[in-house]
Every structure is written in structure tokens, then in C-alpha cells.
Amino acid sequence: MAEAAAVLARGEIALLPAEGLYGYHVRADLPRALERLQSIKPRAGGRGWILLLAEPRLPAAWGQPLEGRAAALAAAHWPGPLTLVVPAPPGLPSELQAEDRTVAVRCPGSEFLRALLAAAGAPLVSTSANRPGEAPPARLGECALAGVALAIDGGVLSGLPSTLVQVDGSTVRVLRSGAIKVEGEAP
Question: Residues 1-18, buried b or exposed e (16+ Cβ, 10 A)?
Fold first, then answer.
């Protein structure tokens, strides 16, 4: 835990077991860390990153709590494998947002990740540890390791990604099916 927190504090990339897959992780508040992550896992098509939160609520500094359907889904499934795509709060750096000014957030079910988030003192950016076009990895040996400062082996994971839903008011759109079932419109 201490070594992972130190790697993240230096702006380096940690390869960690996440919900059901291995993922690259960096501190969201360190621009050089995001640049490193972008160099090994480029984002295309206006997509943003997933921000992991230590607590099952948005940071108070964001100034806007989850409301309505988003709040209900978070209460039902956080901590856990549900990623919510919600409007980005004012002041959130553009590097963390998608082109449509949304942000993807999750409070992970992993006790290790939540403890690491608390130790880091900042949200983490998370993305699966695969090369573009390859299947997301459920084993450490399947991961692309170039550019990674620390890799932690959590054994064989489920292989199921988090369920990804976009919430706009009372409308819930399932963008990616995953580890949990959420009722909503399919894309």
C-alpha cells in the first residue's frame, strides 16, 4: 500500500487489480501523470477517463452532489462495479472530462483500492491495462507493462468490467454492460 501510494505521488503509473480487470492508475490531480497515462493508453473519440473515488459520494470540492437517478444508483451500487457518467462539475480540468463535458466516476468495491485512494488523498484515474483493440486483462500476465512503475498481482480476476451508465436527469442509458445489471436504455 505504501509503495503504491508513493508511486502515485511521484506521478507514475501503477498497474493494479480493479473491479474485475487489471487497470492502469494515476493520480487525477497530477497533470504529468495524466500525460504518462495518455502516452501508453491514448484516449480517442472524445472519451474521458474514469475517476475512482475513496468514498461513495462526489468530493465536496466539486460543489455538486449526485442527485436524482444518479444518487439512487450510487446508493444502491457503491462501493461496487458501477461507473456513472454524469455532468462534469465546474472547474474540473478538461483533461478529466469527455468532449461532451461529462465525467465518469466510480467508488470501487475493492477495499484495497478504497484504502489506496484514501492514502493518496486524491481521486485516481483508471483505465484497463490493455493495448487498444485487445481484450481487457483478467490476469497480470495479460497486461501491457511498458511505462508502468509498479504492478501488483491480485490473482485471476472475474474479467467483468464495471457497468457503465450515463445519467442525465431521470434518463439512464447503459453504455456498457458489466458486472451488475442496471435498468435503462441501451445505446
Answer: eeebbebbeebbbbbbbb
The model carries a pTM of 0.93
d(CA 123, CA 108): 11
| Largest Cα span, the chain | 42
**Other CB atoms within 10 A of residue 129 CB:** 27
Report the candidate in 132, 123, 90, 129 with the shortest Cα–Cα distance to residue 105. Answer: 123
Closest CA to 3 of 21, 19, 18, 16: 16
Contact 86, 169 (CB under 8 A): no
Beta strand pairing call for 22-27 and 124-128:
antiparallel
Fill in the amino acid letter for 26. V
User: Which grid cell is 39?
Assistant: 502516452
pLDDT tens digits for range 145-183: 999 999 999 999 999 999 999 998 889 999 999 999 998
Looking at residue 104, its amino acid is: A
pLDDT digits (tens, 9 = 90+) for 12-62: 999 999 989 999 999 999 999 999 999 999 887 778 899 999 999 888 878
Q: How far apart are CA 123 and CA 83, in angstroms?
A: 14
| Beta-sheet pairing, 102-106 with 82-87 | antiparallel
